[in-house]
């Protein structure tokens, strides 16, 4: 009887290990791990179909690990290994939040190397797209394919204005008892409001082992970094031959949609998709349509 009990335990443990290796976690259940780089202990989540080249997700302003859309993450994990991480000083990652976009890019590069990868694909949203562009300028061979969503080029028109808009909608959220992303990411018509509620509901699906909340000081430093980056001289992105997919909503208030067209034109090997009746969070509102485009792009 005792031998049978221990045998059952061994089988369960083996099945659990096999499930973890085969990527049967969902973003709601995948554990948070840690790796050290640049004197920082980075918090990250990794799961999916493992291979030589993973997909790294670069998140938005004041976003911790719990701000990744589970529908997008799980769909990518079904085809590729997907890794999300907290920037320096954000969530469970240690250190003080970086005060410049290039510094955040240097941290990201160190994080990727600490995991042992020489090349990655990138899916970047909003500020994550700013960081990705700086990563390319520092170490262009680290990236293979890039998806840039709800973002724009350095020095893009209106990029530096995100500071005032963000504070305005944060206060609006406080007065209406809503997450500021309800206003920042989505249009305020009937369709946009439904999409906002659905998205915010998805972000709450993980109920255990959630990430640490983001401090107010992080918001201030990141907004300062964005403002400086938005006022800086544009970079020459034409030197990069990477396949780039640019996506956005047609009414992005945070990083105005014309910046997406500008960004796509600056890269020599890009394509652009603009979703109708949607804002900054167009990829979340149209996550199914986005995945139909992004998955073939990342897997072919």
TrEMBL record:
Residues 54-284 form the AB hydrolase-1 domain. It comes from the Bacteria. Keywords: Hydrolase, Signal. InterPro entries: AB_hydrolase (IPR050471), AB_hydrolase_1 (IPR000073), AB_hydrolase_fold (IPR029058). Pfam families: Abhydrolase_1. The keyword Aminoacyl-tRNA synthetase does not apply. Residues 1-22 form the signal peptide. The keyword Signal applies. GO terms for molecular function: hydrolase activity. This is Alpha/beta hydrolase.
């Amino acid at each position: 009887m005792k031998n049978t009990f221990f045998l059952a335990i061994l089988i369960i443990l083996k099945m659990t290990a096999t499930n973890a290796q085969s990527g049967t976690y969902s973003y709601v259940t995948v554990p948070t791990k840690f790796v050290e780089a640049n004197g920082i202990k980075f918090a990250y989540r990794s799961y999916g179909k493992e291979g030589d080249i993973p997909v790294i997700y670069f998140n938005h302003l004041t976003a911790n690990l719990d701000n990744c859309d589970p529908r997008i993450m799980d769909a990518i994990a079904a085809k590729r290994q997907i890794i999300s991480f907290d920037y320096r000083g954000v969530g469970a990652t240690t250190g003080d939040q970086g005060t410049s976009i290039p510094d955040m890019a240097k941290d990201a590069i160190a994080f990727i190397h600490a995991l042992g990868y020489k090349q990655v694909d990138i899916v970047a949203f909003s500020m994550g797209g700013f960081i990705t562009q700086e990563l390319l300028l520092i170490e262009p061979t680290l990236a293979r394919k890039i998806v840039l969503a709800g973002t724009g080029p350095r020095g893009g028109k209106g990029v530096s204005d995100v500071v005032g808009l963000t504070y305005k909608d944060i206060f609006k959220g406080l007065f209406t008892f809503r997450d500021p992303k309800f206003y920042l990411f989505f249009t305020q018509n009937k369709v946009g409001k439904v999409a906002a509620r659905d998205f915010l509901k998805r972000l709450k699906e993980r109920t255990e082992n959630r990430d640490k909340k983001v401090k107010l000081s992080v918001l201030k430093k990141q907004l300062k970094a964005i403002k400086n980056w938005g006022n800086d001289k544009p970079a020459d992105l034409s030197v990069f031959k990477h396949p780039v997919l640019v996506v956005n909503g047609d009414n992005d208030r945070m990083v105005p949609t014309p910046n997406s067209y500008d960004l796509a034109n600056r890269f020599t090997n890009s394509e652009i998709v603009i979703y109708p009746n949607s804002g900054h969070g167009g990829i979340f509102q149209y996550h199914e349509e986005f995945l139909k485009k992004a998955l073939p792009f990342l897997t072919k």
